[in-house]
Design brief:
330 residues, Rossmann fold, alpha/beta, 47% helix
Length: 330
């Protein structure tokens, strides 16, 4: 074989080897878009996503994670813009926690049309365009809260449900589950269930004060469907001297302040998710899809009810103090 021909074959051989290596070792860019970026819950989601990135990298894959979301959990326009920007950048896929079940439908449909698949986590979307939904069974979590509160009150008393915000599918499912469980306790009186706390602790505190100004002397139990509402209502109860178990509170999620309030007896129970697992499985499910592997349409990440009595059990303690620092550099 003459030298030019040999050189050509060598060049072609190297090119084919390179293509084979790329096919065997693809590079993925994954955008993880939370509802917000300030609450501890979302930091745990981020930690889980980074855990998945590290594992995949350790397996020889090239995975690059982008973490970006709105500062406030009511900024629909900003979250829509983030989704649209990552779609335009042609990332490999998106892991999204939609802060509104309807407002994010069109951006996800546009991403799908552009060839950018989306895994929805935490809060459902009124769409069939997402490739999978990775989340807590929030209705079940709400039921657990209602059953605990009903039993803790001996089936009697006045109850407040302080909702989170309209359009948040995860908390709306918790609220529906809570109301469903109350049907088992006909002597419980629901004195307020139509008020919304809003997206921030400050708004939640104002809403809590308004409710307690009206019902504070007579209320027996309260359900708060997320971290900010739980913290806000507990503070408002302390302000009027009715914390410490005088009014029994069941909250949702395991922020450090809520865990402290549980330990101190101001909160009687927390319904706790596994956000690290949720972030982890969100990324892993997307990568499996990108590799052409079959995935589940719905993945349940579990839900637990934590009280002062069981909070030190290993499984519960791990949920209350997720390993954020292990994966994130503050």
């Amino acid at each position: 074989m003459n030298s030019p021909l040999r050189a050509l074959f060598l060049t072609l051989g190297c090119a084919m080897a390179t293509l084979a290596a790329v096919a065997a070792d693809p590079s993925y860019t994954i955008a993880v878009i939370p509802k917000g970026t300030t609450h501890e819950f979302w930091k745990s989601i981020h930690a889980g996503a980074v855990k998945a990135e590290q594992e995949l990298t350790g397996q020889g894959m090239k995975v690059r994670l982008f973490w970006k979301g709105p500062l406030r959990e009511d900024d629909r326009d900003q979250q829509i813009q983030v989704v649209e920007n990552f779609t335009a950048r042609k990332v490999s896929g998106i892991v999204l926690a939609p802060l509104d079940s309807q407002a994010l439908v069109a951006p996800v449909a546009s991403a799908t049309q552009a060839g950018v698949p989306t895994v929805v986590i935490d809060s459902d979307l009124k769409s069939d365009k997402q490739i999978s939904f990775v989340a807590t069974d929030n209705f079940k979590g709400g039921q657990m809260a209602g059953e605990f509160l009903g039993k803790a009150l001996g089936g009697k008393g006045n109850i407040i449900l302080l909702r989170y915000q309209v359009g948040s599918a995860s908390t709306e499912a918790r609220e529906a589950g809570f109301l469903d469980a109350l049907k088992k306790f006909p002597d419980l009186k629901l004195v307020s269930s139509d008020q919304h706390a809003g997206a921030t602790r400050e708004l939640g505190y104002q809403a809590s004060q308004n409710l307690l100004n009206r019902y504070g002397k007579d209320v027996s139990g309260i359900f708060c469907p997320n971290e900010t509402v739980t913290i806000a209502m507990t503070k408002a109860l302390r302000d009027i001297g009715r914390a410490g178990g005088q009014v029994k509170i069941v909250g949702f999620d395991s922020g450090s302040q809520s865990v402290l309030d549980l330990k101190n007896g101001d909160v009687q129970a927390l319904v706790v998710q596994d956000p690290v697992k949720m972030g982890y499985l969100g990324v892993m499910t997307l990568v499996q899809h990108l590799q052409g592997k079959p995935i589940e349409k719905r993945i349940d990440t579990g839900v637990s009810l934590v009280t002062k009595e069981n909070m030190n059990e290993p499984d519960m303690a791990a949920l209350l103090a997720p390993p954020i620092a292990k994966y994130l550099k503050e």
